[in-house]
Design brief:
This protein is of the alpha+beta class and 313 residues long. It contains seven helices and 14 strands. The strands form three sheets. Strands 1, 2, 3, 4, 6, 11, 13 and 14 form an eight-stranded antiparallel β-sheet that branches. The longest helix has 17 residues. The termini are far apart.
Length: 313
């Protein structure tokens, strides 16, 4: 059975290509996420997957710091070295923690050892650029009320077989904070995402009862990253907030087929479990923020010299 929030792809019935229907928009506003099957056709999905595998197999480990991507669970430090902090305008490769043995030796083949590739695919890789800065995605952004959407943090998340790491409950606006919050995730399955290989799960409606209380920033001494309390707005501008918080969130699993687009509100709590199966779960994701909202120098990801990419051309 399809999970709540699943609707047909937006089409040409509205005024702009990709513009959401009223039913889709209502579902997104109610649930905080929207699942759109077949948003990418099979040939485009296959091309992006092929390009991902090419990059994984061909990147050089010479002079690579072998940075491991850590979400900061179990008292481990969240990733925050220079290789990570200067990746906002580059294509870089971050390893899975479990791709190494206890002595720090890489024990997985290179193409099966990477956690993610990021964070400027949408500008530097032609295949991903042509699937990101599109009239289809611009139409979706218009439907969501964006005035000047800017694209940032584009990446492939690999969820490798047997070792693909768990991602704990989180809100995207914690990591891409604007004042007021404005982030929306565009999450695209390049392979089928299932319960076995670590599909997403969503706390339905939590975007209306979960303020963005912390943000992920560069340490002021320049050495690494940390989470700090949010001092600005904790919900988007003119946003209807539920007064009563739900203490124990219930998560709805979102199994999807390759080519599916999932829109994720920046305040929505969502997560994914470790991939213990023998099948990978590759996805491509990028984020949009409101261009005229404050995005300050403390955010871990800083804009390139030309600024974040405009989605409206």
């Amino acid at each position: 059975m399809a999970p709540s929030g699943t609707l047909t792809p937006p089409g040409q019935r509205q005024g702009h290509v990709g513009e959401l229907t009223s039913e889709q928009l209502q579902s997104y506003n109610d649930d905080g996420y929207l699942i759109i099957p077949n948003a990418l056709d099979a040939s485009t999905t296959a091309l992006l997957l092929q390009e991902t595998n090419r990059m994984l197999s061909s990147f050089s480990r010479k002079d690579h710091p072998m940075t491991k991507f850590s979400t900061g669970e179990h008292n481990k430090a969240h990733v925050g070295d220079d290789y990570f902090l200067t990746s906002g305008d580059k294509i870089r490769f971050f390893f899975e923690e479990d791709a190494f043995d206890s002595k720090g030796t890489l024990v997985k083949p290179q193409h099966r050892a990477i956690n993610k590739i990021g964070h400027y695919l949408h500008a530097l890789n032609p295949a991903f650029r042509e699937s990101t800065l599109t009239s289809f995605n611009a139409g979706i952004a218009r439907s969501l009320g964006f005035r000047d959407p800017r694209v940032l943090q584009s990446m492939v998340i690999c969820k490798q077989p047997e070792i693909g790491g768990r991602v704990p409950p989180h809100q995207d606006s914690t990591f891409l904070y604007t004042n007021p919050p404005s982030a929306v995730g565009f999450w695209i399955a390049l392979e089928d995402a299932t319960a076995e290989n670590g599909c997403l799960s969503f706390a339905k409606g939590s975007h209306r009862r979960s303020p963005v209380k912390s943000r992920f920033v560069r340490k002021q001494d320049g050495d690494g990253t940390e989470f700090v309390d949010v001092e600005g707005a904790t919900f988007p501008r003119d946003f209807l907030v539920e007064e009563k918080a739900q203490k124990d969130e219930v998560y709805t699993m979102g199994e999807v087929k390759a080519g599916t687009l999932v829109l994720i509100h920046g305040n929505l709590l969502h997560k994914s479990e470790k991939n213990l199966s023998d099948k990978s779960r590759f996805i491509y994701t990028f984020h949009a923020i409101e261009g005229d909202n404050e995005y300050d120098e403390r955010n871990w990801l800083q804009p390139p010299e030309i600024g974040f990419s405009k989605l409206y051309q």
